[in-house]
Amino acid sequence: MSQTSLSWFGIFRLGLVQTSLGSIVVLTTSTLNRVMVVEYMLPAMLPGALVALHYAIQMTRPRFGYGSDVGGRRTPWIIGGMLTLAIGGVVAATGTAIIENNLSMGIAVSVLAFVLIGMGVGASGTSLLVLLAKQVDSKRRAAAASLVWFMMIAGFAITAGIAGHFLDPFSPQRLIAVSTTISLIAFSITLLAVYKLERSTNISDQSVTASEVQKPPFFVALREVWSEPQARHFTIFIFVSMLAYSAQDLILEPFAGIAFGMTPGESTQLSGIQHGGVLVGMILVAIAGLVAGKNRFSLLKNWTVAGCIASGLVLFVMAYSGIADLAWSIHITVLVLGITTGAFAVAAIGSMMALVGKGRKRREGVRMGLWGAAQAIAFCVGGFLGTIAIDVTRYFLESPNVAYAIVFTCEGLMFLVAAQIASRIRPTNPDISNETEFHPIGDSNIAELAKGR
Question: Is pLDDT above 60 for 216?
Answer without folding.
Answer: yes
